[in-house]
Amino acid sequence: MLVEQNKRTHTDLWKVTDNVMNLEGSIIREILKFSSKPGVINFAGGLPAPELFPVDELKEVAVQVLEKYGPDCLQYSLSRGLIPLRELLAQRATERGTTSDADNILITNGAQQAIELVARAFIEPGDYILTEYPTYVGALQAFNYYQAKYTTVDMDNEGMIVEQAVEKIKHHKPKLIYTISNFQNPTGITMSLRRREQLIEVAREYNIPILDDNPYGDIRFSGERLPTLKSIGGNEVISVRTFSKVLAPGLRIGWVNGPADIITQFEKVKQCADLHTNTFCQYLVYEYVNQGRLDPHIEIIKTDYRTKRDIMLRELEEHFPSGITWTEPEGGLFLWLELPKNISTVDLFQKAIEKEVAYVYGQPFFPDGGGLNTLRLNFATASHEQIVEGIRRLGELFSQHV
Ligand SMILES: Cc1ncc(COP(=O)(O)O)c(C=O)c1O
Asked: What is the pTM for the complete model shown?
């Protein structure tokens, strides 16, 4: 009996729930195992450029926080988040067209937790969520835990094709509309003003909340700034934001802006999850933003990413065979490629790694496992030289197959 038991793992012995057993680990994290090997030019990660993290400034502010707030910044704090930080975020939202106060804001452990809280609050097994096709794989993971089903809407250069959404909504009655309206992960596409207005109209008509996951909105480096879905749709929209891409993801500070009564529901869920977000990091971010350091920092990020995007687009034009198309994002971190239908980017991934260059194949971003001929490139983390060399190598590989 003992011998028999020893063969079994604790996962068997202790009966981990089916919900957890059925979760797939992030394929992207698996891809990152290959791509983070020394020597590999990495276009795969979703990471912002680490050399831009304002380490010295944060060190200065961290010392100030400890001096100014003492034990308070190390103490338990409110589940909803620090009042001064919530007030500041509400004020910034108001200045940009979304009238808000501190009651509309819940501070979370990054945008990922915010998405998870929304799913926990709204989704029961079998409920439909309407998403773009493709969409952010981390959201799919969070939704999968709650056994959501998906009804998906194709995208074009103006984002989600809302006309298509109407039919799907009538048919599946989704509980939630999930969109990444700005510089979408994975495609880099931004929803046009016309589509934003249409989507809000549809959501209103059918009474479905829109979850606008918006980590990249502040990183617009070309084109015209558009009003956010939240500023157009008001209480129709639950907006999820984060400091991950504009400051540093390791701080794990994000927030939700939504109707106050709904935020109260999320707050209860948050209490179950982790009591509250890291107090020290909330003070750190609060002081950083309140001292006027964030906006100039975002300008530095934009300049850097714009140059890198331009280099990548130039090199794609130069080295990629015809038959491959790509998006030209006006902000964010990613661009998105489509190869001819008969080419599998999953199959070519290993060959790319042999050439010491990594991308993320597109398949995980499609809830139904489609998109075999697509891939995502991150232009933000590699150096200029690496972008030139990496795109040259990928161009060589694809030219042999396309
Ligand atoms: C669309 C989208 N939502 C959410 C997240 C998670 O952000 P955070 O680091 O704030 O949890 C990411 C990160 O890549 C993302 O691309």
From this structure: 0.95
